[in-house]
Amino acid sequence: MKYSLYIISGLLLLFTSCENLLDITPKSEIAAEELFEDVEGFEDAMYGIYSQMQEDFLYGRFFQVVPDVLAQYYEYGGEYEKFMSYEYSSDANVQMQMNKAWTDAYTLLGQVNSLLDNADKDFDDINYDLVRGEALGVRAFIHFDLLRLFAVDIRSNSDLKSRAIPYAENYTLNQIPFYSVEEVYEKVINDLLEAEQLLAYDTEIFADYPRDATSISGEGFLYARETHFNLHAAQATLARVYWMKGDMGKALLYAEKVINSGKFSLVNTTLEMENLVAGRINGIESIWGVYSQRNISSLYLGASSLYVQASVKDMFIAEDTRNDAWFQDAETKVQLKKMVNRDLSNDPLDLPDYPELGLSMLRYPEMLLIAAEALVVSNPEQSRLYFDTLLEARGLSKFADREPVQNVTLEDIKTEYAKELIGEGQNWFSMKRDNRIIDSPIGEVNGDAIYTLPIPYDELSYR
Question: Which residue ranges does the record assign to the SusD-like N-terminal domain (predicted)?
């Protein structure tokens, strides 16, 4: 029997990114037993998983950059140019990148499952519950992003719904079967609900905002919980999953759990806006992020960078604090500086020691927008309150203060979603759930063939 690529790759990599982890040996079962003989071994394994998440073909580049290129944020795609015209099957470089992202994701899922398969110990240690909850959350999070990229939308009428992606639940040499779109949603949600239970201790140890180096309590695995897949990350991911699924009642339930936790707020100054996502895990808005010191300045600020479409830049009026904080002119072009950590470049910011260096995976504004959308018809006043909270923090006039007072529309929310999450790889999925018509280099397009990356050829060949 031939095995899936991620299994073969997974045998070659066992948590090598983490300090004090075992060297790779052919006796992987013995290595795992030694690694997981105490709680500290589980913690080290989890740190290794987070370290892998920030690699180039995972969240360091591919999972954030490619969806934004597909969404036509940029007038030039650089190394991702062929994605702009949706040449999924005809361009060798596009196929290579998709295959690498797929393989790296399932390799990492193999590591996550190795941890979970060994989590049958009876340790009387709260950290043990936290590690297991984090691993389940990360497993769901990665699978969900693979589903959103490589499978049709759950509301599609396509026959492709019956064969979406494999859902890896064990570290095994056996073939992992493909599941339907609905089955993958069910598995993602079940993992997240279990994670939410295991991470309940975060209600006590997750520091209030604004988080800084002096306000963070705890040490070791309990320190800086926003750098771990924490309780609020589980709830925020559930809100995102239900939002994508179209179950707005449950999306609202989980978005409001995050909102009502009182652990997050919004920044409102230009310097804070510059610092918000620029290689940082923000102590006010970030729900979860992974530590990283990656320098991606050449991607956004280089001579052949991802120049922003004029129509995208035009969405940001002068009063919007994001306008100056996130964009800069480069002769006749506009560059996106939002994602670039200038502490690691030639244009450093004068920033405090905290927040942490890293990639923001989930941010508070998304929860406000999900809640606003869920209530836009049933409770327009509360919808406007959530929406205005974001507008006011970004220097814009609240709908409640306008003459006459305005109600929020779905189009208002979608526009704000596209603005707020530029560079973070999320708006593509808002477009996908609406099957929105896209103005692209090949004309106006939409449909499953555009919004769904094909399963890599190598995965199908080697099964």
Answer: 80-204
